[in-house]
Amino acid sequence: MKRKPKLAIAGLTACSGCQLTFLNCEREIPTILDRFQVSFFPLGESSGGDDERFDAALIEGAVSTAQDLATLFALRRASRLLIAFGTCALFGGVAAMNNQLCDRAELFRSVYGREPEKDLIPPAPFTNFVAVDFSITGCPPEKTDLVALLGSLLAGTLPPTTCYPVCMECRSRENSCLLLDRDELCLGPIIQGGCNARCPATGIVCEGCRGPVSQANVAQEMELLLERGFDREDIRRRMSRFTPGWNYEQRD
Amino acid sequence: MTPHGATVHVPAPAVLMERRELTGDTSLIRIAPDPSATGWLSSYIPGQFIQLSVPGAGEIPVSLADMPRQNGIIELCIRRVGHVTDRLKALVPGNRLGVRGPFGVGFPVQRMKGSPVLLLAGGLGIAPLRSLLYYLVRNREEYGEITLLYGAKEIRSMLFRDELAELALRRKLRLYLTVDFAPQGPTGDVECAVGLLPDLLKGFRFEANRTYAAVCGPPAVYRCLASELEEAGVAPERILLSLERRMCCGIGRCCHCAVGQLLCCTDGPVFPLSVLRQIPEAL
Amino acid sequence: MRMSWLPQGHLEAFLNLLEPYGTVHGPTVLENGVTALAPITSPDDLELKYRHTLIPPKKYLLPFRDPILTLNDGCYRPAPPVAPNLVLFGLHRCDLQAISYLDRVFLGDDPDPNYAGRRERLTLVGLSCEPDDFCYCDPAQPAAVDLFLDQAENGFLVTPHSPRGEKIMSEGTGLFLSSDHLPSLLVPLAPPPTPQDPELRFSDNPLWEEYARICLSCGACSACCPTCYCFDVREYPSLDHGGNRLREWDNCLFKKHGEVAGGDFRRSRLDRLRYRFLHKYCGFSPLQGVTSCVGCGRCAKACPVGIDLRNVLEVTYRGAEPATTRDQATGTGEVS
Question: Which annotated residues bind [2Fe-2S] cluster (chain B) (predicted)?
Answer without folding.
Answer: 249, 254, 257, 265
